[in-house]
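Budget justification note: compute hours in this period were largely spent on complex prediction jobs such as the one shown. Inputs:
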Amino acid sequence: MGRSFNAIAYAAAIAAGGVPFAIWPPWPPAATIEAAAQSVPAPSAVSISVGGVTLRSVKVDLPDSDRDFQGPGADVVNNNCLVCHSAGMVLTQPRLPRAVWQAEVDKMRSTYKAPIAAEDVPAIVEYLAKLPD
Amino acid sequence: MTRYAASNLSRRRFLRAASLFAALPPTCPAWADASANLDLPGGPSLRSITTAFPQKGPMILQRSRPPLLETPFEVFDRGVFTQNDQFFVRWHWAVIPTDVDVAAFRLAVRGYVNQTLSLSLADLLAIPRVEIAAVNQCSGNSRGLFLPRVPGAQWGNGAMGNARWTGVRLRDVLDRAGVKAGAVAARFKGLDDPVVDGAPKFMKSLEIDHARDGEVMIAFQMNGEPLPLLNGFPLRLIVPGWYSTYWVKMLNEIEVLNAPDDNYWMKTAYRIPDTPHANVKPGDNGFATVPINRMAPRSFFTNLTNDAKVKPGTSLSVRGIAFGGDCGVAKVEWSADRGATWRDAVLNPDDSKYGFRQWNALIGVPSSGTLTLQARCTNANGETQPAEPNWNAGGFMRNATESVRLVIA
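Corresponding output:
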């Protein structure tokens, strides 16, 4: 089993304007436990064989992260930055100058269309500029 | 070089999660205790080893969603081909289909062509097949080693792999549609999508002559097996000698263009300084950029890691892998005196232009002290790895010589 992050439904819910980010999906999710048992997908009945090559339909579950942002000021980062990517993207970064983090957050909003309110940006940059703590 | 140590980091995170969800089983999976140390200058260097991803064995976890999974470096010592279940994984966007129906899948060919195509997998399997061994390397492989550090995926050296790719020539598919005179490029898209509306869907393009060169291919097998879903099942583009950003996964659309591609992922992202080795100084600006393209030669030690102990006065068996980048390997050399003198290593016989070559050497260990070994590759075009690493803001194209520091004891 395991519950994978249903990003399509999540994006649709955002587009409909109805989902507060803090509520769904809950962090951290429990899927990592069950996910360890499903590295081999069940064989599918649907297959195509031509000239010695067989391709079978595949169904898998992708695990969620069990990490989130911690400490003072983490809420605004958790609520805004985990829409598109897990915390690992950020937590593996080296210490970076504040201006570099500002540019990254600006890129997330303008290029990658991250749904971050302008008034949340300073608090997010403040938190990131202190990483790794 | 990575080191592995039992770590409490993953266990602490696991237990914190468990405290919030009382229904979890009390036992902790074995994988939760393993971590890798990438030894990145300034850190953070520790990464969990995960076995949670489908069709994948132990992988270095850079990011869960969308997945960034690095190959543990000892995998490269096992042979010249990188096993599918530990081949690195890199996705840009998190909406990745997890349910692929081979009967329903179609590859579309459209745009500046005589006829549009909608090819089934059976159609593709009936086209004459080709196979090529080629290294797939992330543009930002080794970015975590840059100094000064740059933002991006903080890989060690493991965002690369070599495989036998089986499939059909892209040229044969394009010619079936009929490329119109005046076509300029072919652009490639896959099944993955951004999470948020309006974000730039990942797509890359190649100049039309490159796309039709007979080496660029569409693969449906790697190392004799269907592609793992995370490596692009059922089809991916193979661009031998070029960085992996072009190797579009879950390839389902080819669009022939009659004007240069100005999409974000060609025009703004994945661009390198138009300078030798894509090298600039931090703070430089005003230089022209080009889309990243051909790979550069690299070589690695695979059977020794930093601080390994070696016996004084003995003959040490050293081995590794090398690749020429956009052409074959001409030679691999090693040095034990910080690059003052170099000696030829023995190259395993191999005729693959674009794959890994294994190399080995017998090196005399002095009676005391430390022994620092370096390796360097010269490719068939005469290009040699530089001693000094390059730098650019994107963290791309690192190929400086590698070294390993051994303790004589």
